Amino acid sequence: MLLWLSEYLSSFYSGFNVFQYLTLRAILATITALFISLIVGPLLINSLRLLKIGQSVRDDGPQSHLKKSGTPTMGGALILISIAFSTLLWGDLSNRFVWVVLIVTLLFGVIGWIDDYRKVALGNSKGLSAKAKYFWQSVFGFGAAVFLLMNAQSPTETQLVIPFVKDAVIQLSPWMFILLTYFVIVGTSNAVNLTDGLDGLAIVPTVLVAGAFALFAYTTGHINFAKYLGIPYIAGVGEVMIFCGAIVGAGLGFLWFNTYPAQVFMGDVGALALGAALGILAVVVRQELILLIMGGVFVMETVSVMLQVASFKLTGRRIFRMAPIHHHFELKGWPEPRVIVRFWIITIILVLIGLASLKIR
Fold first, then answer.
1. pTM score, two decimals?
2. Angle at alpha carbon of residue 343, lines to 342 and 345, rounded to 5°
3. Whether the Cβ atoms of residue 205 and residue 53 lie closer than 8 Å to each other
């Protein structure tokens, strides 16, 4: 929006051309989303508290969590508001990548909002049924995949890039591309949702991975950098750097209120949306395999649940004291802040490994 305005004003004063720089707009998007979160956050938290939209806590989990009962949830709406406003303000609204990442994120946020609303406002403990939730995730996931396939402007946009190996790409067939995109978006959405069980546990890895994808987007969308680094060049994808910056700013703003002990939880409205955002970002910058590395904490949480369920069904025994795995460490006696910070440290290491793939080939 402001990009168009700056283009018009630059005809009167050349100084406005500075807003054409992608890096500057990404920084401004980050700052804008951060300040929106910090300003709107207290108002939203007070409103949620007055409406008694509070978190219910399972009594079979760590006993330290019982005191969290009643803490306002659905705070993910704050993140989505900040991301959407900042992206629309600083992004190039003629860019197809900007719209697809933003719309997918908001649609998954709607699924989460309905689920949260039914749980905490209507008193329905089941919320949105698992079948209904998965159905709509599938609809939106497949819809995004088909859109990207139909609007691909070069073979590069449907290639699977093998990290750390020079010139190693696999040209995906249309069906392979659709299935991969679907599983990345839906899988990451649910993985982040599973991770969102402790104060700040999910939001910091999300911020770190989104920040890394900002660099991937910039280099992938810059023909000279892409050629130098030996990565695929995709025209126009650099613009999603604005969206990545908005996630970083909104996430940091939310962390201000979500840090231990949390004043608000993001709920499914935030977790499902942010997971989908990371998934669609990985797809548009063609770094699905790098997402598996940088989002290793999300993968670990998901695998722990899968192993726990499989083991119990097959043998009647549990591998972990409780799944997802962050609860296992809590029940072993780790204080909640220790679990959180150690998972953050793991994510930092994994993100650095992912970023190293830009040069190590």
1. 0.95
2. 65
3. no
The amino acid occupying position 265 is F
- pLDDT value, residue 187: 97
Tell me how far apart the alpha carbons of residues 52 and 123 are, in angstroms, rounded to a whole number: 11
Tokens 């929006």, located at residue? 1
pLDDT for 68 equals 65
Q: Which residues lie closer than 8 Å to 214 by C-beta, 6 or more apart?
A: 26, 241, 244, 245, 248
Closest residue by Cα to residue 263 from 86, 62, 78, 124: 78
CA–CA distance, 54 with 71 (Å, rounded to integer): 5
CB 277 within 8 A of CB 87: no
Q: How far is residue 65's CA from residue 262's CA, in Å, rounded to a whole number? A: 11
Q: Give, rounded to a whole angstrom, the gap between the first and last alpha carbons of the chain.
A: 38
Residue of 304, 271, 305, 275 whose CA lies nearest to 291 = 275
The DSSP result for 87-108, as a single string, is HHHHS-TT-HHHHHHHHHHHHH
The token duo for 19 is: 């807003």
* Mean pLDDT of successive 10-residue stretches along the chain, which has 361 residues: 77 81 96 97 92 64 61 93 97 97 98 91 76 96 98 95 91 97 98 94 98 98 94 96 98 96 94 98 98 98 96 92 94 94 98 95 78
> Would you put residue 171 in left (φ > 0), alpha (ψ -120 to 50) or beta?
beta
3-state secondary structure of 327: helix
